[in-house]
Amino acid sequence: MQKLSLATRRYTDFVTLHNHLGDKYPWVVIPPLPEKKQSFMWNSEAVSDTMDPDFVDRRRAGLESFLKRIASHPEIGYDECFLKFLGEYDNWVDLSKPHNNILKDTELTIKTMNASLRGRNSDNRFEAIKTYSNKLQGSINKILTYRAKQAERLYNVDMIHLHYGRIFSELSAVDNDIGDAVQRTGHYMDSIASAISPALEDEEVIMDQLKEYLAFTNSLHTFVKNHDSLNYNLNQLNNMSSNKETSGIMSRLFGYTAAAAERDTAAIEAYENKKIEARANYSEFVDKSLENYKAFERQKDSDLMKILQDYVAFQTKYAQKGLQTWKNILQSIQSIE
């Protein structure tokens, strides 16, 4: 096995790799990149700083997850550009060239098509994927939005205990009889306030995993658009072929030269060959894409269950720690005679 050398990669390099894979493998739900700037921030006064150390660490973890997901895929994991990306600094870029120009050429056309035309001859399976993706995107958006609001409320409430701690500390200096107990109570109050920021940062790691699946919904949208592009291209060829056949019939009815007949026949045959090729490409795309989507679904179900379990475990641990702190506060107060 070839030994891989180490290389430094910038975020833009990962973007180039991501675009290359999406361009070359349109039937694959390409793993998304982590966000470049923070979103769904719980602290409304904070600035989305891309150089924030905690955010940089989380984004690095997200990039590692991106690479691991690619490496574990049975097809894109063996892509030559990806393998060179892991070990060589310059050569990998030479391989990241555009593919599937048909998809790119028809994308703008599809955007301007009438909704009724887009629905013609559409595959219900891909329509179902699109509908599910929209619902998943909406649900995750709501979860992240509500979580950000709830986190800010929790932070503000817990930080109030910092003021309580200061008051108890001042009180301990005034009344010597209860000074020790009150001072301990103040320290416990301080611990509540000091624990909230690290706790929310730990929770943010779990939310980043959820954000990954929010980004996955964009991958699904692209996945469906790729199907729509090929389907549109096939329909266009069918229409052109039909028009050519009609033109040939009309010419034969009203008379035309042998040379013209030969040209019409050759044109019809050429369109038929293109149509056969397009139909084969479309059929291959559908088979591959649905197989990849099934694999994505299995992984998605497993990952979302793990995220939920991690979140419940985190909340349980944090609640138990808070409960113990309040028990200590109660004992301190009860020790006052």
UniProtKB/TrEMBL annotation:
Single Gene Ontology BP annotation: positive regulation of autophagosome assembly
Coiled coil, from the record: 261-288
Keyword Coiled coil: yes
Domain of life per record: Eukaryota
Domain PX: 1-93
GO molecular function ontology, one term from the record: phosphatidylinositol-3-phosphate binding
GO cellular component, one term: early endosome membrane
Keywords: Coiled coil
Family: Belongs to the sorting nexin family.
Entry protein name: PX domain-containing protein
